Amino acid sequence: AAMRTSRIKRTKTVCTYCGVGCSFEVWTKGRKILKIEPQAEAPVNSISTCVKGKFGWDFVNSEERLTHPLIRKGDRFVEATWDEALDLIASKLGEIKQKYGPDSIGVIASSKCSNEENYIAQKFARAVIGTNNVDNCSRYCQSPATAGLMRTVGIGGDAGTIHDIASAGLVIVVGANPAESHPVLATRVKRAHKLRDQKLIVFDLRRHELGERADLYIHPTPGTDLIWMSAVTKYIIDQGWHDQAFLRDRVNGWEEYVASLERYTLDYAAERTGIAREQLIQIAAMIHEADGTCILWAMGVTQHMGGTDTSTAIANLLLVTGNFGRPNAGAYPLRGHNNVQGACDFGTMPAWMPGYEAVQDEKVRAKYERAWGVKLPEQPGLNNHQMVEAITKGKLKAMYLFGEEMALVDSNSNHVEHSFEQLEFFVVQDLFFTRTAQYADVVLPAAPSLEKDGTFTNTERRVQRFYQALQPLGDSKPDWEILQLVANRMGAAWNYRHPSELMAEAASLAPIFAGVTYERLEGWQSLLWPVAADGSDTPLLYKERFAFPDGKARLFPVEWTQPFHPGEEYDLHLNNGRLLEHFHEGNMTYRSEGLTHKVPREWLEVSTELAKERGLESGSLVRLTSPYGHVKVRVEVTDTVQGKELYLTMNTRDPEAAINRLTSSYHDKITHTPNYKEMSVKMEVLEDK
Ligand code: SF4
Fold it and tell me: A single GO molecular function, which one (predicted)?
């Protein structure tokens, strides 16, 4: 028995899926993953996990893993050595840079990769290629939340911790489905609601699990959240329920802001949002009476043309009611991927260096130029959306993309795939031969989190270490090692031997990480940024100051934006979102037996009324058409959705059923986040049942 256990290895890791950031031990024997064992020491989840964290690991040993570099020869891909692949990449990127300039190249980073890997990716883009054209998938999800918070309170992160959410008097969830997208966080809310009588209000088009449990479930007219938020805020002010001392001492912009609310009367809001006057009053009263209000939001708010403005309205409401800078209160944009927070924090964004210091700030650039020994580009680069447009205009010639299934997850995917065909040179680095890889010239085999060391940052700004449990499969390598090899072929002389050296460099340059070291993160320890040089971290933001030079927050007036509608013939509203058992395009979860067994495919939710009207039943096959494409999907008749609103699960491995065949290229005005949630379609019933 001793022999047997001695061959079993236990390694602390951090979940590779959602932004909750659960950590646990993974038990391995050779390459076999025996079990996931949560431990009481885990700072976020203690002994809990969800089904993905527990059963979602088979993909690591999938026969479909890439184990060698591949190079395109005509219509085929052939196996190549690392030397051949690296030489080709260096010479092609070098040529393109020479011929068209550094801004003809773009880098797409990955929120499935570590902080250190995102740090080295932005350094590669800026210092080696010489461009700020670097972005990550937060552009598809929470960039509007970041922008809304930066306008008002100064930091694009959760105000406090998951503990604060669980301890709040009132939790308001807007356009998010935590029970499926952030399951362990949702269990905290469910428990607080049940045991402590925490109050819960849910705004969503679907009556999902938290909606069912809420004290108040509200179905607003799609795309009208800013209106009810503004009306509730105005009503609170009109009642004299605003936090006058807090507003006087800590907040700027009161008069202009109050003037901007004038039109948002209860009647105006009731008419446009479909929420009854009495309910609007009830919401205001619940906020007024609560001992601390937390507002949680996700894609239902951000993926609209007015996504940044609605996120701003959330921050305004919380400022007016004094719900910042105190425990058990504040703004909580729920981060999707396990490291989408970290990818942004470590600078894979076109306008921000690591730690949210502006690219355009001369002093910031000078600091990095000294440290890196290069001259840096001065202007912000292109974001994901702009890169696609620049390809179609012939301005962007080459792209280096890692850990991102852009061909399926970017909106209007027919258009995106068409743009990829026009690239002169395309490198894709991933675990699998993805849909996106089909358009590549070189495909590089990367290693998942279980095969490397690093850190991830969860939705609470909590940085946690994960440790290597397995060797990289075949010839695959950790993403940071690959990026260093490519950089060195292109003339850099980097010599990072371990991710801790990348973290040390980032900490020496970005003030919010000043005190982050691998020693302080050893084992189950974690740090919530900003982290001072002495190692003290910040579970609760804005205790004394907001992140502006005068230390005061700013109320920021915003106006409602009419959602996009393609025309009357598209008579059904189509919403989309996640499933508990699968993650995004499903490249990892559909390769995990335990999950695929539970949920083998996507489906379309249709209301009972609509099913009756169109003669549909569960299992019917329908075609949905938008101006941008069509999909074929199976129907599930349900009471979760109502009337002419449909819901398509976004996790699919069938490109013919992928939601983004239907979505448009319209986007949030400020951040260019696609308006995935503003979609209308028409539906035909197909013969097959
Ligand atoms: Fe992983 Fe999120 Fe599930 Fe936790 S809640 S186990 S982080 S997917």
Answer: formate dehydrogenase (NAD+) activity
